[in-house]
Design goal:
By secondary structure, this protein is mostly helical. The protein is built from 14 helices and six strands.
Length: 382
């Protein structure tokens, strides 16, 4: 079986799979979170807020599968990175988990009591359940680009040397703002597909602001990376087919190193360009009423922004600011050849099923949600 795909190729395939899953999560669960963050501001009365909620109600649980599959894939393919990240970023992960609790509870219980204070409270908690995870995910990417404060001992046990508050540094917060803005923009585009009337018009008015913040934050992040943040480079020979032991290499910090891949492979410049063009084109398409095409374009914009971080850091996955030698890369922190091959078979089987089922669900449950529809089906809608 090992002769089917060599070990180094498998590592590259799994790096791409993890990237695809992150992008899939951002596109599918990202628009849910974007709509959740818009909820208290777009809906001016209970019927309008129920329109907003029911635009994502049939799909939000199914979209969570991308998050679950992503976590499982990282656990299977990148066990060292999984253990290091989840132990080092424990409190940040716990904040995400606590915030996510508000989503299922809010959707299920929000409309069970016809009291303004009750429903308004759950509306704001749904915002919290969407805003906090988005912000933390963005902050996490910002900290990965700067290097995480951890080191590995000779037994490859990870030790975290930072603090929760240390994660909230200026560059990481900029990445958090970028994540929030792009999810709000993506969610607004989706909400325009599913809404009409006043909800549609108010959502349309938010697009230029969220698009502008997304583009400016993305551009500012790129300039900051080029001139204000040291990247990581491997300074010793490394065997792409070697065993998973990060301590067998040496790593140095170098100003502008995160731009090296773009200099070596100029075509990769198309990836950040996709981020800018995708968001701008989505804004134009949405403003002229081509909301379906705008959602596709917005999805491409998100893919470009996220892929930019991955291409910039390659082959690093989780660089270490405490001990650069402990940095985790594609070549030295993956699971065994056998594990990667077996789990790849699972991905090949189940990922197309997830995509097919999700596409079918969106097709069947397509169409506009209106206030009249909410009033006519008040007991069967969220």
């Amino acid at each position: 079986m090992f002769e089917i795909i060599d070990y180094s190729t498998l590592k590259m395939i799994w790096w791409l799979i993890i990237g695809i899953l992150i992008i899939g999560f951002a596109i599918m669960d990202g628009h849910d979170m974007g709509v959740g963050m818009l909820l208290p501001f777009i809906g001016k009365n209970d019927d309008e807020r129920r329109v907003v909620i029911n635009s994502i109600a049939p799909h939000w649980e199914g979209n969570q599968i991308w998050f679950v599959v992503l976590g499982g894939s990282v656990f299977a393919a990148l066990p060292i990175a999984y253990g290091t990240a989840f132990s080092g970023y424990y409190w940040a992960m716990l904040a995400v988990l606590w915030a996510l609790f508000f989503r299922p509870v809010g959707f299920k219980y929000r409309s069970m009591i016809q009291a303004h204070r009750w429903r308004n409270t759950w509306d704001w908690l749904l915002l919290v359940g969407s805003f906090v995870p988005t912000l933390v995910f963005g902050v996490a990417f910002g900290n990965l680009l700067q290097g995480s404060p951890f080191y590995l001992n000779d037994e490859l046990r990870s030790f975290y040397t930072g603090s929760f508050w240390g994660l909230l540094n200026p560059f990481a917060l900029l990445c958090g703002v970028l994540a929030v803005a792009m999810f709000v923009f993506h969610g607004a585009v989706y909400l325009m597909i599913r809404s009409a009337g006043d909800v549609y018009q108010r959502t349309r008015k938010t697009l230029p602001y969220s698009a502008m913040i997304t583009i400016l934050a993305f551009a500012a992040g790129g300039i900051w990376i080029a001139y204000g943040i040291d990247g990581y480079v491997i300074t010793s020979p490394i065997d792409p087919s070697g065993s998973s032991d990060p301590l067998y290499k040496t790593v140095a910090l170098e100003r502008g190193a995160w731009l090296n891949n773009y200099k070596t492979y100029p075509l990769t410049m198309l990836i950040p360009a996709l981020g800018f063009v995708g968001i701008l084109l989505a804004l134009v398409l949405a403003r002229i009423g081509k909301t379906g095409l705008a959602f596709i374009s917005s999805s491409c914009g998100l893919a470009g922004i996220i892929a930019t971080a991955g291409v910039s850091m390659f082959p690093f996955l989780m660089p270490s600011s405490t001990d650069p030698r402990s940095s985790l890369t594609v070549w030295d922190s993956m699971s065994s050849h056998h594990t990667l091959l077996i789990t790849l078979v699972g991905v090949i089987i189940f990922l197309p099923i997830i995509v097919a089922y999700t596409s079918w669900a969106f097709y069947v449950l397509r169409g506009k949600i209106t206030e009249e529809d909410i009033r006519a089906n008040t007991h069967s809608r969220y």
